[in-house]
Write a structure and sequence with these properties.
Layout (H helix, E strand, L loop, with lengths): L1 E3 L11 E8 L2 H15 L2 E4 L3 E2 L7 H4 L4 E7 L2 E2 L4 H14 L9 E8 L3 E6 L6 E5 L2 E10 L2 E4 L10 H22 L5 E4 L2
Parallel strand pairs: 6-12
Antiparallel strand pairs: 1-12, 2-5, 2-7, 3-5, 4-5, 7-8, 8-10, 9-10, 10-11
């Protein structure tokens, strides 16, 4: 579980943890969300579920008819926690492996700031920045002209109206968190020791 930080320890730009979930059925999505709540705290916003029909990349391992959903959590996180969120998400994915060892849930953590969405990845590519120990950061979307803008490498599901609307709600929540923080509240989260 995550515990609240003291204001004086906050150093990075305000960000929200966003996790993309991918699974073959709703039961697994619900179970994965419960595991995420145990790890990261209460969910504050969920996107609607949508069919994942943009690529067959995951079908060999996870099967056909995949469902995509995104969630975000109460409070804010430090940007340098992206690495830790990716490691924890990978551990949670292992809890849902099938009897044959195949992954049945995919969890993609990212950080939403006022300016962009950065996803964590275990795969190297020209547009990804190495963090450490096999984890990379990818600038996936930029917030410009009042909306999230895609880049040449942005995944198609992150370009959909469902995702864009979800991220807009998350950004509004982040703005409200920042306003509360300025008036004396503190909504940042950090991993428990």
């Amino acid at each position: 579980m995550f515990e609240r930080l003291k204001e004086e320890r906050l150093t990075g730009d305000p960000a929200k943890l966003v996790v993309g979930l991918l699974a073959q059925d709703r039961r697994l999505l619900v179970q994965a969300q419960s595991a995420l709540v145990e790890a990261f705290g209460d969910v504050s916003i969920k996107s609607p579920e949508m069919p994942f029909s943009f690529t067959n990349y995951y079908e060999k391992e996870m099967g056909p008819g995949l469902i995509r959903q995104w969630v975000t959590f109460l409070g804010q996180v430090e940007p340098e926690q992206l690495y830790d969120f990716k490691l924890k998400s990978g551990q949670l994915e292992k809890r849902f492996r099938g009897p044959d060892g195949r992954r049945r849930v995919n969890l993609d953590p990212g950080l939403l700031s006022l300016y962009n969405l950065v996803l964590a990845s275990t795969k190297s590519f020209a547009h990804r920045v190495y963090l450490r120990e096999g984890i990379y950061a990818e600038l996936t979307l930029m917030f410009q002209a009042g909306k999230f803008q895609s880049l040449a490498w942005t995944y198609p599901d992150y370009q959909t109206p469902v995702c864009q609307e979800f991220l807009s709600h998350c950004r509004k929540e982040l703005l409200a968190d920042i306003a509360r923080q300025r008036t004396g509240g503190n909504d940042r989260l950090a991993p428990a020791s």
